[in-house]
Amino acid sequence: MNCVDYFLSEQIINEELFILGRSEEVSFKELAQLVAKLADWLKNNIGVDNKILLLSPNNSFFITAYLAIMKSGNVVVPLNPGIEKDQFDYIKELCETDHVFMVKQVCKRFQIDINDVWNEDFINNIKTTSNETEWIDNAINENQLAQIIFTSGSTSLPKGVMLSHKNLIANTQSIITYLKLNESDIMEVVLPFFYCYGLSLLHTHLKVGGKIVLNNTFIFLGSVISDLQKYKCTGFAGVPSHFQILLRKSETFKNTEFPNLRYVTQAGGKLHTTFIKEFRESKPETQFYVMYGQTEATARLSYLSPDLLETKLGSLGKGIPDVELKVVDDKGESVQSGAVGEIVAHGDNVMLGYFKDEEETKNALDNGWLHTGDLATIDDDGFIYHAARKKEIIKVGGRRVSPKEIEEVIVGINGVIDCTIEAVSDEYLGESIKAIVVMNKDYKEVTDISIKEYCASKLASYKVPGVIEFKDNVDVNAAGKKVKKN
To answer: Which domain of life, per UniProt (predicted)?
Structure first.
C-alpha cells in the first residue's frame, strides 16, 4: 500500500478542517483533492522513482507537495529550508535530481531562477486549472522507497536515511495505538516537518482525522500559549529544549491552565527528570509521555506510559507496539539487569538503509536489527534506561563517566535552564569535565563555585566539573534539538 493512501484515503470527503492556524486553514477534502491533482501531474510529467527535494517551512505548500510526491510513486527528500547552499548542492548532486519544490523565500536566498523550481505559484496553478481528480489508491510494493531523511553523520557530510512506505505505515499505526489518538485530537505543531518527529505528528493526525495547528514561531512563547488556548489543543510535542524553555524562561506557561491539553510527548534526546517533575507539578492533569526514537526507526522506538512515571522515572520505557528492543553486549547477547549495553531494535519501522552508503548501512543493520549507538541499562522489569551515546562517554583517569548523570544534578539547581557536559583534554587524567551552564538571568547568586560545591555534595569527586562556563542561551539546531560537540 502507498503510505499516502493509508494516511488520507479515509478522509477524502471529510470537510472538517485539518490545518489550523493564524495564516491558513485547509480541510481534509481540499487537501486530498489538491494532493490527487498534483500527484497525477507528477506521474504524467516526470514519471516515477525520481528523487524530489522539498524545502519549505511548515505550511500547506509543504504538506501538499510532501504527500503528492509519495502518492505519485516518487521519493520525497524534505530538507531544512535554512540549509546552507553547499549542503543543498551536495544532496542535490547525490540524489541526481533536478526536481525541487521550494518556497520563494528560499529561492531568493539561493539566488535560484524561480522558473527552475516548483513554488507556491505552481501549486496554486495546479489547484485552479486542473480538472477534478478521482482519488485512486495506488497498489505498490510496500518496501518501495518513499522518502530520504538526511541527518548529521559521523563526518561533516549528512547521511540519507531511506524509509519505505511500509516503514511509515508501521510506525504511524504504532504511535496511534499507544497514544490512543482519534478524530478529536488537535496537535500544536512546533516541530519542523523536515524532522522525523515532526512528520510523525502529520502522519498520525491525518490517519485518525484529527487536526494540527501550525506554529513556526516557538521563540515567541506567547504564541504557543495562545494557540493551546485558542484552538483547544489536546496535544503538544517537543524536544527537551522546548520543555526547558517553557518551564524556566517564563512563569506564564506554568501558571496558565490548559483544560483541553490531554497529553504532551517528549523525544529528541533525554529530558532530565527534574524538568519532568516540574512539568507534572505544574500540569498534573496532563499526561506526560517520555519517548525515544531515531530517524533510522522512522521516528519512534519506545515510550514510557504516564502512569509509570512515578515508579520508572528516568526510563525511556519499552518498545512501542510491534517493535522489539534489547540491550546487548559487544557479542550481541542480552545484558543482565544493571549492566550497560547498546540498544538494538527490530520491527517494520526499521529503515531500508543509508542512501548510497553500504558501509554505514552494514554498521547500523545486522540481520534486520538496528544498532542505535545508544548505551543503556535494563532493569528486572524490562524497562530501559538511557546512559549515553557511545561517543559521549568521558573517561576520567580511566573511569567511565556518563555526561547525563552530571547534567541531571546541575539542572536541579534553581535557575538553571540547561547544562551540557563535555570532555576537555587533561595532561594527567586524559580527559576532565567541563560544564556549560545556561542560567535564568534573575538568579545571580549561582556561581561557578556554588555549582562545584553542589556537585561535590551529590557526586563522586572525579565527576565534579573542573571548569564551569556560563552561556546566555541553549544552542539548538533547526529542529530544536540541543547541539553538542562530537
So the answer is: Bacteria
Q: In CATH terms, are 3-215+304-378 and 393-471 the same topology?
A: no
Q: Could you give the CA distance from residue 109 to residue 88 in angstroms, rounded to a whole number?
A: 12
Buried b (16+ CB within 10 A) or exposed e, 231-255: bebbbbbbbbbbbbbbbbeeeebee
Cβ(378)–Cβ(337) below 8 Å: yes
Torsion-angle region of 205 (φ positive above 0: left; ψ -120 to 50: alpha; else: beta): alpha
d(CA 229, CA 279): 18
| Angle at alpha carbon of residue 304, lines to 301 and 308, rounded to 5° | 165
Is the pLDDT confidence value at 318 over 60?
A: yes
Domain 393-471 fold is GMP Synthetase; Chain A, domain 3 (3.30.300)
Q: Considering Cα of 164, then 68, then 32, then 263, what sign does the dihedral take?
A: positive
- Distance, in Å, from the CA atom of 60 to the CA atom of 66, rounded to the nearest integer, reads 10
**339 vs 342: CA distance, rounded Å:** 10
Place of cell 505528528: 201
Q: Could you give the 3-state DSSP secondary structure of residue 437?
A: strand
Query: Taking the domains of the chain in order of start, what are their residue ranges?
Result: 3-215+304-378, 393-471
At 368-415, the pLDDT tens digits run 999 999 999 999 999 999 876 666 778 776 566 878 889 989 999 999
Q: Which of 327, 356, 325 is nearest to 339 (CA)?
A: 327
What is the C-alpha radius of gyration for the chain, rounded to an integer number of angstroms?
A: 23
**Helices 28-46, 120-129: crossing angle, 10 deg rounding:** 100
Which ranges of 375-433 does DSSP label H, i.e. alpha helix?
403-410
pTM: 0.86
Question: Whole-angstrom Cα distance, residue 258 to residue 228?
Answer: 7
Beta-bridge partners for 151 = 159
The 3-state secondary structure of 120-177, one letter per residue: HHHHHHHHHHCCCCCCCCCCCCCCCEEEEEEECCCCCCCEEEEEEHHHHHHHHHHHHH
Q: What is the mean pLDDT of the chain?
A: 92
* DSSP result, 291-315: EE--GGGTS--EEE-GGGHHHHTT-
| Residue ranges in 327-476 assigned as alpha helix (H) | 358-364, 403-410, 448-458
Nearest residue to 271 via CA among 239, 305, 299, 311: 239
Lookup: cell for 171: 510506525
Overall fold of domain 3-215+304-378 = Rossmann fold (3.40.50)
